Fold these 4 entries.
Entry 1:
Amino acid sequence: MQADRPPFEDLYREYLGRIYAYIRAQVGAAADAEDVTAQVFMNAYQAYARFEPRNTTPAAWLFRIARNATLDHFRAHGRRERLRRTIEHQPMAEEDPAGQAEDRIRYRALLGQVAQLPERQRDAIALRHSGLSFDEVGTLMGCSEDAAKMLYHRALKALKDAVQREGV
Amino acid sequence: MSEQDEDLELQALRRELDDAFATTRPRVGFDDELWLRMQAKRPFSTRVRDAFGGLFQGIREVPAVPMAAVAGVLVVVLGVGIFAYSGIGRGGGSTATMGANAPGNDARGNTNLAAGAFGPVPAPGISATPKGVEQAPPLASQASGEYAGPATFVWSGKFDLAMSTAPVYRYQEPSTNAADQFATALGAALQGRPQGLLGSYSATTYTLKVRGTVESPPLSPAYFILANVSMPEIDAAGAGPQDLAAIFLAQHSLLPQWTYTVSVDSRGNPVKVIFERQFDVPGYAGAHLVDSNGIRYGLEVDLNEHRPVFVQGLLPVSLESATYRIISADRAIRLATAPSTNETGGSVPTVQLKQAELVYVLATAGDHSFYEPAFLFSGTLQVNSVTMTRHVLIPAVDPSQRTP
């Protein structure tokens, strides 16, 4: 029964931005984030017939695909390459006329710091701030809700230290 | 640092992260580009199967700026040599109301003819692309039969054009009101105004989307009809695709009011019936409207047997015309065959250009955009024993009448 399954375009329009932000926080560079985001929605599009809304929320389903695609991306490119590109694509240096606003620059720098956290910390922060509950974060990361909370708080502290160190 | 201070800092950081994630979004247009790529990868048969599986409405939605993304791909895929010396736009138009003729007529024959009534024609919508530098993705190029790689050009045809002026057409950018009126006339109700669209509308048997001019790549104002599962088949036993398309258009009062030729592409499913728009040019048979790839367009009806599944057409706009001086055919040929400054000097194939015609292309310019005459040269070449086509577009309006 698929009556309660929303049109895919609805999901696409609703989640594209959030998925992109989640991936951007992981991979650092806008071009990489676009590539991975495209792969996520290509995969989701093909798999949508198998999506069962009674078993999971669209958000959890899409973020699972996004997480897998991001891991695939890192496997394909290697962490060193990721870091190199992250450094090369420092948010402050990006050409974006709209990005001159102070807040936006700071936010991008902040996501750049998130991208340099260890993988699980980075993931916990990105999933949590993409709007998922700790329960959903834990499910996606293969741990309990409490463990997800702990991981998130540890990650937050690590990020705070990094931000203070780097002066974001 | 006290524990309380640290808590406050973490709280502030959480809020900042919330804001960072909430405001980090892909660049403008990425969503539509990606959506189109997804649609393009989807076989039609799959769409139909999903339609009956209850997914039809959502999955077949057209992207908010579908033509923009399509052209963005096609410009790269097909590639048309466009000279840098004056550049060129791409063309399209819709229901035409031929407006006042221009005072420019008075100056016909004067080599120092002032610009036509619209003043200097605006800069072309696409940046001039020296011929021979486009690189086409191999599969797309092979599928289309279009060659987009570097080439040198030799003219071996015959092209006489006994005219020194031609009309330039201008239209005002359609508003949301115009889109609403168009939709209302079709019986479709406004659903919203997604980014990049003048409006998205729904009717009993289809979804309608209306889009204004797109500057880059330049695309004409257009409407898109996406049939839903309740779209009935056209009851016309024995009718061919062209008749079926015409019946559907007539039923919805969408038959073109402009002159056209018809082509039918029945190589795949859906079958595509294309009403290729022509512009009236005194002293010349109708000049086709072409895009930056030299491909004719106007109004397309896609048919799955007797059932219309998709329509895309030029949004009706009111056209004014003014006469502008154009370059001679000889000069156009010289430009078409001139060596490109971007060619590297390596071994490139030679294209025998054998055909030429006067066409119209779109040049966007903000509130008003223009359909301008151009010369379209076509030839073939052999690539890996496969015969492929190459086009070269040369803007026809005299450079002295163009915006510097």
Entry 2:
Amino acid sequence: MSAYRGDGAVRSIVIDLDGPVPLYRQIADGVRALIARGHLAEGDTLPSVRKLGELLGVNLNTVAKAYRVLADEEVVVLRHGAPVRVAAAPAPSAAVTIDEVSQRTLHDWVGRARLSGASEEAVREVFEGAVRRFYRDDEGGER
Amino acid sequence: MSEWMVTATLALTILTTAILVEWIARARHPGTLFFLRLGRERVASDDARATRLRIGNAVITALGIAAVALPLGEHAALAAVLVCPLLQTGWLIAEIVGAAKSAVPEKVPGRYAVLLEDPPGVRDYVSVPLQLAHVLLVLVAAAVFAWIVGRLPAEIPAHYDLHGNVDRYASPHELWSLGAIALFDLVLLWFIVWAIARERWALPEHEQARYTALQLDRRRIMVRMLEWIMLLVNVAMVLVWLVIPLEVLLGVEGLVGGAVIATVILATVGPIVPMIVFVPRLLKVRDALVAIAGTEVLGTRDAGWRWGGLIYYAPEDPALFVPRKVGIGQTLNMARPSAWIFLVAVVVLPIAISLGAIALAQ
């Protein structure tokens, strides 16, 4: 409620109905980003499937699918009849390496950017922006 | 009730609709026609449309009042009172549809933000004193009526003709129906407030705090306006409900006539006053919302808006109530079965009950 009174809403998900990314992935990405940026902590509850569907204006199955994706990634805990909870997220550590799938995703992205004619500076800017967003909460004061 | 009072009351009902239509036709809010946003500058053809409506409205009103005032008989007067408001509002709706179709369609962006927490609830919108006053009004009236009804004869005047002569007698308990209407109005008000509280909170990605404050304002103004309108309508309802049996109980002649006039004034002119007070404030908030997000209907599906934005039909949107794209207030997502149930309950059912009651009274 407090955020609706205008004193700094931070826990928001952006949805793009016209965008190319499937809605369930947008929702999963949004929740993941909130957790990664520390706006949702371990044990926090997420809205029910019905509630989030109404808030966002999307089909309940879409929300359920997003929550299943997040549960498969062990980002949230789904238990029948219980609220969806945020799972424990490990703190950044030098001992943790980036898995192969994530590396390939990044390589794919850089490759596509290169083929689209983007400059090296542009690619670096987007990459560093993403790092700043999740490791230093650069956009924290924006909303 | 004297002849001139009857004539004045009938003329007033025609005149009230005329005033409302004239007010809407004359509205000169920038970039709008009949309070609906054109998405372009207002041009000569828009002014012509408004002028046409004003002339039509004046002619219908003059004919209607003539039919009531001239000695053409009861049927002509009653027909005028029934037909004129229909013609006045029908013409207004036709011009609004035309204006909506001539407006530049505004593309509703599919991109918006949603806060992951419970939005404000009904209690954040209602005025406690107004709601308490309304509930007390209905309860006290019911208590007073219950006290009076036990002291009345088995049959009291139930219906008057246009000259104020009693043409039907019935059990005083029949008057509980007026209390039922007052209660229906109150419940309807609560339902609409609940619907406003349930409207989606879609926010732009920037200026979220200011947008949020404006949205709260918009919804509070709508609720306040409705609270006043319904309260005034119910004061009128309660007046008639209590005065009819009081006249019989006290044996005072002429109470009903005065009460009917007061009721007609309260129930027709009364609701216009809150509209004139609150609508300009709503328009100001709407302009500010549009300045931030480019639209007042952020969070709705662009493809769902049909008929120049008059109808919303979006099967993929779970919302039942959405902000109105054309005009102010809310509209229903007609793709939801509950929207049709709501329409039947709120529009068709009361009309059917009224017609049934009239048929029974004949």
Entry 3:
Amino acid sequence: MMLPEHPFTKGNAMREFLLRLRRSEDAASPPHAWLGALGGAGLLVLSVVFIIGGIKLGVGVPRRLGTGAFPVITGIALALLSVAIILSDLRDTRDAETPDWISFAAIGASLAIFAVVSDHLGLMPAVFLAVVVASLPDPSLRLSGKLILGAIISLGCWGLFIGLLDLPFQAFKGV
Amino acid sequence: MDIFASFGHGLLVAMQPENLLYCFIGVFLGTFIGVLPGIGSMAPISMILPLSFYLEPTSALVMIAGVYYGAEYGGSIASILMNIPGTPSSSITCIDGYPMAREGRAGIALFTSAIASFGGGMIGMVVMAVLAPALASLALNFGPAEYFAVILLGLVAASAVSNGSPVKGVAMVVAGLMLGTVGVDITTGAERFTMGIPELRDGVNLVVVAMGLFGVGELIVSIKANASGAHQTDIDYKQFYPSRAEWKSIFNPILRGGAIGSFFGALPGTGQTVASAVAYAVEKKLSRNRGNFGKGAIEGVAVPESANNSATQTAFIPTLTLGVPGSASMALVIGALMIHGITPGPRLLVEHADLFWGLVASFLIGNVMLLVLNIPMIGLWVRLLQIPYKYMYPTIIVLICMGVYSVNNNVFDIWLTLAFGWAGYLMRLFRFEPAPLLIGFVLGPMMEEQLRRAMLLSRGDPTVFLTRPISGVLIVITIGLLAYSCVSALRARRHQRGALRSAE
């Protein structure tokens, strides 16, 4: 992966840190495909939960299938499939994709912040903060740029969703 | 003559100002997202889904369909100019489109792709108008056992034929079926797997699942993929229209591509990508110009574009007449209709003739709009490719949040979207496909209901699925398909291992 080189401005430690983090992530060798077996193991846990939950709900009789029948049937099918997945992924020798944990965390944080802030402070601050946090993983945009982008998008959202579409959003809450 | 009368009626429906507006919004948004590399039509469809709840069902369907085929037009632009497919199905267009652009014939390639998409779309529309009523009248005799078997076949086809491991695909479908059981059981009224959370009593919201798995999940993948920045080719707009000889050479390929595309589009599980790949391979065998394929042959642009666009139209045939979606996008179409209280199936053509024929006619209107958007206005999309992605993706994430929030005015849905988004990313990392999960999720409740009904009618005898002729045949086909895809996956893996060994 190529990132454009940027001359570091003084005091922009954040960007330097991010660029370094990106490079070390890119330099790390890709994880092995057996990571996929973790996915299979997760599905196996899920299927057990559904089988037990389904039995507790009651499977009924063939003529009148109970609430739990379908979860149990699908749970058994998934359990068998996930065992097959675990076995085949453990034998897989190819490399898996390189994960991008920075973007993974930033996008998650952005959604979480939107959820918390829109509930307590209203839409405008929520959009602003969500944009700023989501754009953090991109080192090519300065912090001032991220702030301006956040301001523009929150104004745009206000115009579109409250001004134009008249949706029941509150721009600011409890202020 | 009946078809013409119905189509004329549909045209009147589609020409209503409101439907024209939403058709335009749909195709515009579809092209917009299609142009952006890495984001398929799923993300925009799930983003407009909440908006469609406020619309008339016909307007909603016309808009969603517009996004779906608009993305196919847009997808080829990035393929031709940057050698990066904007949508998965336009990857075949890269093979000849990009070499054409490098020869300085980008304009002609873009024009050809637009006109071929239009031709393919029209072929697909005619096939849909003729075939859908016939299939619907056949399906009118279906009972619960047949429906169960058709859904099962659709699910297996959609998962096992997808690229990647068939076992993982089927596992995703089953996980989707399980996810569909969350909430209150409609038959008994008992709560299932809600963990005491009141928001889950109505089940997991379709918008949340789709936005999380496709919107958020794809976005996380695309950040790194697009960070390197777009490289541009200059387009000579004077050289935009093909010569008479070029027109002649693309005419038959468009017809063939459209025919192959409409066949694969109507089959569950194959869809546009397979359609364009097969059409390209067939054309390469048939063409007199085959030596030039891969080096900038104009037929190589026309054929896959015609095929993938006709496949987007015929994909609606099984979706609307049987209620069995062939792809995740079509599953969202079913979800959108059910939210409006319309159950897709053979009765849809009779009970909601306006909706069906309005949609068919909107294909004509939407494709004409796309022709205008993609030929005189091509410069707009080329400029869009120059906008750095760092400005795009934070905007998209906010639109996802707003869309999810607007469904129920409920923050819980955003937290759930976050969970599905992370799950979608991890699934891609571990080579699981999220599309079958969504299809299973949409069809799960329907499948369970048909299973219960069939078992009740047969007094608890499960052999009913095999003894009734139509369902028996469908089950046998399903098992055959499953066996075939497992064998071919094993063979592919053995082949790969052999290749690795010889490389060492």
Entry 4:
Amino acid sequence: MTTQIEDMLTRELHDVAGAVQVPPMPALPTEEPTPRVTRYAKPLLAAAVVALVVGLVAAVAGRGGDDKPQPAPSPSPTVTDPTSVSTAAPTVPYVVDGRLYSGGEQVPGEWWALQTGGEVWLAAQSDGSWWWGRPGGEPRRLEGEVQQSPALSPDGRYVAWIDVSSGQAVLTGADTQPAGEGFGDAPIEDLPTSEEGVGLTVPAVTNEGDVFVTGWRTRLMWRAQFEDQRSVVDLADTAPGQRVLQATTAGLVVVDESDGPTDSATTAPYLATVSGEGRIDEVTQLPTFDSVEVSTGGTWLVRSAAGTTVGDVTGTGTLQAQPTEGGDEVVLRAPQGGAFGNSSWHWEDDDNLIAWVMPAGRDDGGQAARCNIRIGDCVLLDDPSQG
Amino acid sequence: MEYERGAPMAFSTTKQAPAAPAYDEYAASAWPWLYRCAYLLSGNHADAEDLAQQTLLQAYRSWSKVSRADEPRAYLRRMLTNLYISQRRPQGRRLELLTDAPPEPRAAMQQPGPEDRMVLWPHVASLPPRQRAVIVLRYYEQLSEREIADALDCSTGNVKSTAHRALQALRAAVGPEAHEGEEV
């Protein structure tokens, strides 16, 4: 039957494709097209244009026509005193071109999709398996078959994921402390693996161990570290139309879907608190973004602007930072005309950001960089593998 | 690389674009293939044109990378499937949140065509985006599991399980029709 169906599929798909009347290719644009879904606010667009112009000037002036990435930091003409940014080894885990470093040591394997919480890391291997670890400890693999991306609490204390190895979705988690234990299974019956073709995800776990599950319809909060661990709140009832996107040190990032499904690139999300009963209260509005990270003290956020890192784009030349409570924006530029690898940026403390910078025009290689938000500058760091 | 080399498409060469001649030529040659893939993914001409055009726009933005790739076609395929999967979700949700009833197959809402007489195609159109992408890449593009995993940025195990679920759904869907004497 399998062969029969596969033969039918091959035949029918080729028949359908062969019968398709291909229209003439439309004329292509003369300038950068506007993304279909996202909309740039004019100030952001203006900032992007300014950043682009300044970046180009900086790149030309600073490189002197040499496109090769330099191994060591070089003075940038756009900042006041680049030597003020520390070039010491990062104190948080980071990934450069698939190499994961933790506690100054390279962790064997090829890694991507890094999340950090303090010195704890959570990342995927190239075979799709997920692991967490901390300096001096053996990496631990998340048990079962992990569906979608798991979540790490902002302080790195807890990790939570959905295990679909049994054919059913089972929500679970673990305490990452050396003597920590697993959460066991959440007391949720008949949790589907997907809804309308969209796999259920764990977008967030808080420092208190509250785990959020989001699907097409599902909006749950499992209080995995509260009393008997059997408290599950249906956020669809307690906070209708609100979708939790991630947990940060400054609170939950939530988007309001009361007017229909949306995302953080289309609708400005907000920072919020959640009560044990599932009431979500807005703290402050956030700008739209493709991805966002909040500093360890909750003071700053850094984001890739909406529409800049979607699709097949592997990085962005600039990041926008601003106080979480609102205020002037600081534009961080990747050194030497390079690009920050998508979602590679993680806060080291309340002032410094560690990121992977890809050389100009490439999406591999490169080095780690440190950006100091107060100085508004980024410098490349020595590559430990070369040392 | 085996690009379709049909009649040159109408395309202005006066526009300024990065590496314009190479991009123009490549885009024109890739367009028929790209459009057909987009049609198989989206199931209708409007979305297919939109999807194919957006893929070319994305390639245009990243042309320095695409043109240097060993297989630009693989690069485009990856862009296409990622765009399809990422865009399908909010669009589908907007449509389907209007009712609690199960969604109708999208093909049922299209203009009737030769494909409507096919047995599996209408059900392919009802598959979730990721499953549908795997099916198109496997049985139209004839890609290996490794190549599909690269295109979808996932593991081969994930491709296997997704394909398994898709085939299972298709078997379940055509089972009754087959018993009713449909040509299988």
